[in-house]
Amino acid sequence: MLIKTLFLSIAIITASLSAVNAQTPANDSLTAIVGKWAGTFEGASAGKFELVVNQDSSRKLTGQVVMLPDDGNRYPIDLKTVTWKNGQLSATYTDPTDGDEVSFMGNYTSPVIKGTWKSDEGQSTGTWQVSRMGR
Predict the structure, then answer these.
(1) pTM given for the model
(2) Beta-carbon neighbour count of residue 87 at 10 Å?
(3) Is the pLDDT of residue 7 over 70?
């Protein structure tokens, strides 16, 4: 009898957890965004970059944009803000070359995030897209 009760309890807990997981969209989970991404941007300027999104112990998102010019150098820039909600990423950073704030927003549609960026108070705009670099 004890074994039947134990198996029944395990089955109920498993079913409950499955129902909770089914109600949480995968692209709303922080695990959908945390990691290293590689992509391109176009607009007033164009090029390649990497996006690194981290999560600290308090679940706060942090990260970097790493610009990848044709000269082979890497230029990491810390993100000032990073938010992730309902499958949408929004972030800002300060361009080290001219001090302008750059903001970008994108939607996650597996396996990519793509969206728009703007800087120079909206004077410069463009598009961007990234794909995950391994897990």
Answers:
(1) 0.76
(2) 18
(3) no
